[in-house]
Description:
The complex is a heterodimer of chains A (278) and B (606).
Chain A: H1 27-43, H2 49-71, H3 78-90, E1 91-92, H4 97-112, E2 114-115, E3 118-119, H5 123-134, E4 140-141, H6 150-166, H7 170-191, H8 195-198, H9 205-214, H10 225-244, H11 250-277
Helix pairs in contact in A: 1-3, 1-6, 2-3, 2-4, 3-4, 3-5, 4-5, 5-11, 7-10, 10-11
Chain B: H1 3-37, H2 45-49, E1 51-55, H3 79-82, E2 89-92, E3 101-104, E4 114-118, E5 124-126, H4 128-131, E6 142-150, E7 159-166, E8 169-174, E9 178-181, H5 183-186, E10 192-200, E11 209-214, E12 244-249, E13 255-257, E14 269-276, E15 285-291, E16 296-300, E17 306-308, H6 310-313, E18 326-328, E19 337-340, E20 344-345, E21 349-350, E22 354-358, E23 365-367, H7 369-372, E24 380-386, E25 395-400, E26 406-410, H8 412-419, H9 423-426, E27 438-439, E28 447-451, E29 457-459, H10 461-464, E30 472-478, E31 487-492, E32 498-504, E33 509-516, E34 528-533, E35 536-541, E36 550-551, E37 556-561, E38 568-572, E39 578-582, E40 589-593, E41 604-605
Parallel strand pairs in B: 2-36, 26-27, 33-40
Antiparallel strand pairs in B: 1-32, 2-3, 3-4, 4-5, 6-7, 7-8, 7-10, 8-9, 10-11, 11-12, 12-13, 14-15, 15-16, 16-17, 18-19, 19-22, 20-21, 22-23, 24-25, 25-28, 28-29, 30-31, 31-32, 33-37, 34-35, 34-38, 38-39, 40-41
Amino acid sequence: xxxxxPVLVQERTTDARGRFTLDNRYLPPLLITSILLGAHLSYxxxxxxxxxxxxxxxxxxxxxxxxxxxxxxxxxxxxxxxSGISAGILVRxxxxxxxxxxxxxxxxxxxxxxxxxxxxxxxxxxxVSAAAFLAPATITVLSIQWGNVLAPMIVIWLLGxxxxxxxxxxxxxxxxxxxxxxxxxxxxxxxGIPWSATVAPITGPMYQLFIFFMVTDPKTxxxxxFWQCVVVVVIALVEMILRLxxxxxxxxxxxxxxGPIAMLIEVNVSSRSRAQRD
Amino acid sequence: xxxxxxxxxxxxxxxxxxxxxLVAIRVLNSxxxxxxxxxxxxxxxxxxxxxxxxxxxxxLGVDVVHQGPAFDSRLSHIxxxxxxxxxxxxxxxxxxxxxxxxxxxxxxEGSLNRLYRNTGNGTFADVAAAMGVADVNRLETGVSMxxxxxxxxxxxxxxxxxxxxxxxxxxRNDQGKRFVAVGEQAGLxxxxxxxxxxxxxYDRDGRLDLFLAGYWADDINLWKLETTKIMPESFEYATNxxxxxxxxxxxxGTFEDKAAELGITSKRWTLAVIAADxxxxxxxxxxxxxxxxxxxxxxxxxxxxxxxVAQSTGVGRAPKSGMNASIGDVFNDGRLAIYKTNISxxxxxxxxxxxxxxxxxxxEYENLASSMGIDYGGWSWGAQFGDLNNDGAQDLYLANGxxxxxxxxxxxxxxxxxxxxxxxxxxxxxxxxxxxxxxxxGYQRKRLWLNDGLGRxxxVAQVVGARDTYDGRAVALADxxxxxxxxxxxxxxxxxxxxYKNSVASGRHWIQFELEGTQSxxxxxxxxxxxxxxxxxxxxxxxTASGFSAxxxxxxxxxxxxxxIVDRVVIRWPSGRKQTIERxxxxxxxxxxxxxxxxxxxxxxx
Lengths: 278, 606
């Protein structure tokens, strides 16, 4: 999901986060690996472990090859690992090829869809959205609970919250959650469907991954904290509109639509500011 | 090469990779779906595939439409899905006249079940009322979900066990003249919300025992709810379903529940069960196809107990929405594969159906449904293996479709949204969005996969004549005309019962066996028959329940293709005795009685 690992060393020194010593770049991979292993060992969520392994190997392999051939140096594989493992978790298919192609598309999008040195789409969001749109008969996106016990879900939420707070992205996740709750209530009022039903998706693991890894991706979010919050509110709004039109993978499509537009605006505004200064 | 040049070339290369990958996703998706359509659009199924189906229920005198129940009004907003089962069919020759009869259930309160007696002249007559098995759907007893025949008292007449959302009942067959309700004396449970049951002789004592699997929890009366928190606690990990009963036949007309004592304590939401010797021990194992969770495979430990080996064998690792359990030797190599149906809806949920084929070591199974082309069947329900074109390979008929209501409106979005919710949300029916007349995987095209014998199935349903789009549930195969061809009976939820009469092209041979146990249970349930011909071997086992809420004819039917000779038949009786029959005559039914001397084994042809 996160295309690049959050590295916010400048925020380390002045607050409680400074007490952590583990390199930030390893926290998200550790979290997502823990989630996967915990869910699989508890509930056997992976029908074929080799499919997830294929996703991871494809993403890391593509990242190393593309990074090396493009920039002449070996990229750090942490973000590709997250992309691969995320694709491996999110993609649900009885075929093996989706695990390979979604990972490949995710990483390739990062090297192709760029503007002024920045890539526009969160790689896994791009890959998963494209796959869900192009191959509805063979690929679906994770949309079930892992188990039926509350405790593991609370642990994931707590652990995820600590890590996004640690890497300085907690405001994004929190704003998104608040927006989702608000808009699901609005949606409930508009449709007459119980709020407990419209809010149900956020209790699933798909949203845990979306909230902790995808919308917080530093490389595909705007730079100002205020605008980061504004963007996720807009994402939640677009998501609600899509949901009112019964689009099941609304969060992915909402981020797919809103994320690059926000990036384009920021890049454009930055260029103008720079031009005016010059 | 300078850095900008290299980056430009790399960008072009990665653009090509990205575009070609996106195209590949689209193409591979199309291929996966088009492979299931192969064979459609043509004409003359009998010429191309060697058989043709013709829907003939009314012409045969069978005109019955299944009625659904109406539960507590607090479920009215989702009634079509909670009251979505109960159309069942079970085949037996209950009057022993040599012609296959069948029992059909209905589920509306006050509606009547039917017992169609095969008159032998090409028509059927409903004798349910006269025989005492029609008026069985009452509020005080619950309504029918299915039935299964089995000669539990070894008197040679198949008895009828009826399972309901309610009180199960056992009807003793009084020499084909009437049925007598004996459930209370037999010691059956008072109330079980069951969707499946099977007769089998788990301890090989020569008497049929009964396995009964609850779906909803036993303490729920669906007409008088104490709470709306009755739904599964998870879409794929629910364990708050009904308990299971293993009713040991004491031999005196009574039964004793030994499920817990023998190690079966599951409370999963079971929709189908099949009993067969899947693990090669000589004792029948139990495969449970569970909704909202993983399957269970209870290995029989010599009749002394059961151990769930679903995890270690591989069949119970991935939770899906299991709705069918049937077995077939799809490779003609003596291995029984298990076919379990699930849900596939493009763009929402693609579980794919499972074909669990035992590996060579027999300790593990692998799912070959995808590679054999029988994974995508829509919202799949009952399925049965049988050689429909008598070419020597077992084909597969699949019924599907959940709720067909508004043709242009779908409940899928709301269903998917609630399905992802945590147990506190999904478990309460009050939280479920109202269906409001919308369909949920409705009007689906049926599948009839023809087995080429080499590991590939082709869907020919549309070409050979299986063109209905009702909400199919139970499928049963039987040679209704004693013609050496398997006809297809399909029970549809809130729809008409269909009989697809099968016309097989000439020149295709067959052979059938009807077994009678002497040391074994009289119906020979659990007997395993290996047919050797043309360097092939096909194994079949005598079962009672098979598929979803269904039972095929007990006779075993083998297609032989153009082979004029069967080398031998090896019968392993449930008692453990083995009998070999050399070169049995083909194109006929053989009635075989279990010999007291295993060396003897001449069949009595008819």
